[in-house]
Fold this protein.
Amino acid sequence: MNMKGSCIALCILLLLPAASSQAVTTFEIYEASVLSQIIKRNKLTVGMEVGFFPFEYADTDGRPVGFDVDLANIAAQELGVPVEIKEMEFSGLIPALQTGKIDMIISGMSRTPARAKTVSFSQPYFEAGLCALISNKRAPEVSEISRLNAEGRVLAVKLGTTGDIVTGRLFPKATVKRFKEETECVLEVVAGRADAFIYDQLSISLHHAQNPQTTHAILKPFTFEPYAIAIRGGDFDFLNWLNILLETIKADGRYQELRKKYFSDLQ
């Protein structure tokens, strides 16, 4: 080896210890995981918007109940820690997760490519789809979803939901009105100020049942909406634990009991 080659080899050897000393160990990765932090602090904090029946809603005493609340309780039991439910607007859930105010989101949240750019999602725990509540006053002739994509149509959506996300793409000719509350969207349709409210199948079915004289519904889903648990992006230890939890409760019957409790009419 010539002198130049010897110098290059020596430089590489001198750099190796420095590079090796900066490597992150598997222990350090686990320590940084929210999973580890939950166990150390002895509390699981779950964010949800308590107003999405029957996934999360308030009982007569104002306490959060529902499918997602029970799922959060099961997760806490398996972790061996108490759970704290933090209620907030749906559009604020992902920012709260990113800033560490909550450990996870369980709130009927569909996993989408757009959301997956900023958070990590578990495997789906429920599959639904978008449907439409139609105004009898404003759009009595509408029986197919494609007829909502027309000039002069007004569509109500809840801010931050997948209905909000996809409406501009699927119905580019229509005017979109965005509201913070689900009840505001329903009122727009009932009063004839909007042709349709785009939302999930279960909620649309419920709202039509509550307003049979002023609305009709298209209940065949026109999108695929897999609900999943959201955690901070890149936390693979926590993500692995959540997926194992979901696989376990589906195998031991606890998941089926939850579906029977809240969706007996869909069994």
